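User: Let's play a game. I give you a shape written as tokens, and you guess the letters that built it. Ready? Here's round one.
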């Protein structure tokens, strides 16, 4: 598999200046023309957090796994231009056929959370933890992780999880082993384990930088080992944000993503996946008021789609996901023109052995659905 840093530095992956010089109207017309020309041979999945300028051209919008599955189901599509981040395109490549090609319009579109658990740190941690706890640990990884981490989990008997099915998968893990290692987002792992009755004093945090276990109680009591990683967007929602909303808008409901800190989730009215948030607002009564704790592009889109409700961001000063925002209209137009002209770059191809092992982790999760 091509190293992403090598790919970013390669000259062919630098967007030509002409795309930055084109007007929005010119770029939109170019994208429309190529979409019409390629027809069903092209499929553009767009993650919920993408900019509106990109989402307008998406054939489907949703969460990362949902979009990867839709890509796999669409056997007519030869070209899958994934408007999301690197790990999402990897998952699409794992699930699609060898005849299909998956593209990422900008190879710099990574995920800071996924990058917080690399395979070298994870192998080192596993060696340390299994030496300490024996064969009592099962690894789980959030789908927001690299293909290499999914493969690690797959070959060690574990599974992937989504924010929608995390509770089900954690229960499954405990039916298999006494303990679990949850990668790479400590907050989703902590919130999920807490929701099914695991005490905070039964959780420890693995610090991959210092290569040590951080805990407050006896090591024998540990049931859940949380990787010390987080989402840079969702960690910026705070208790102070909630207190501010409660003071200024006493009747307002607060709904957040479970990648937020435990104390934020605990003080909110609701917590759930991106799809849960979207559907909850769709089904809410006209005139109701909401503060949403998730990525700003999505919050702004929800506000536009529901003028009959009063909706704000839980943190009015939060920025959109910076890596998601690397996918923009110029990069989309460039990617589509490259496909049209048969210039091969920005293709995401996962090593075959890593893909097989990652597929094991994904399949174990899907088998529980």
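Assistant: Ready! My guess for every position:
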């Amino acid at each position: 598999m091509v190293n992403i840093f090598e790919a970013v530095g390669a000259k062919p992956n630098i967007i030509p200046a002409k795309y930055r010089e084109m007007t929005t109207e010119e770029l939109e017309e170019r994208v429309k023309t190529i979409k019409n020309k390629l027809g069903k041979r092209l499929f553009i999945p767009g993650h919920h957090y993408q900019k509106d300028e990109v989402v307008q051209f998406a054939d489907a919008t949703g969460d990362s796994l949902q979009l990867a599955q839709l890509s796999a189901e669409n056997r007519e599509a030869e070209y899958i231009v994934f408007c999301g981040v690197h790990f999402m395109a990897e998952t699409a490549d794992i699930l699609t056929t060898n005849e299909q090609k998956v593209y990422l319009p900008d190879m710099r579109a990574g995920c800071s959370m996924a990058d917080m658990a690399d395979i070298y740190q994870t192998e080192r941690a596993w060696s340390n933890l299994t030496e300490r706890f024996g064969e009592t640990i099962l690894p789980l990884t959030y789908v927001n992780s690299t293909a290499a981490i999914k493969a690690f989990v797959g070959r060690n008997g574990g599974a992937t999880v989504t924010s929608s099915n995390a509770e089900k998968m954690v229960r499954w893990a405990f039916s298999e082993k006494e303990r679990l290692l949850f990668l790479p987002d400590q907050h989703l792992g902590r919130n999920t384990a807490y929701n099914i009755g695991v005490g905070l004093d039964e959780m420890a945090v693995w610090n991959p930088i210092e290569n040590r276990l951080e805990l407050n109680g006896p090591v024998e009591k540990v049931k859940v080992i949380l990787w010390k990683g987080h989402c840079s967007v969702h960690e910026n929602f705070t208790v102070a944000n909630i207190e501010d909303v409660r003071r200024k808008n006493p009747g307002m409901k607060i709904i957040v993503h479970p990648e937020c800190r435990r104390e934020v989730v605990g003080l909110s009215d609701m917590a759930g996946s991106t799809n849960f948030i979207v559907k909850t607002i769709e089904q809410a009564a006209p005139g109701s008021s909401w503060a949403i704790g998730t990525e700003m592009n999505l919050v702004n889109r929800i506000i536009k789609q529901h003028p009959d409700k009063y909706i704000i961001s839980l943190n009015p000063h939060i920025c959109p996901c910076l890596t998601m925002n690397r996918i923009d209209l110029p990069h989309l137009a460039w990617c589509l023109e490259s496909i049209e002209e048969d210039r091969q770059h920005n293709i995401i191809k996962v090593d075959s052995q890593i893909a097989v092992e990652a597929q094991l982790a994904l399949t174990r999760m899907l088998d529980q659905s």
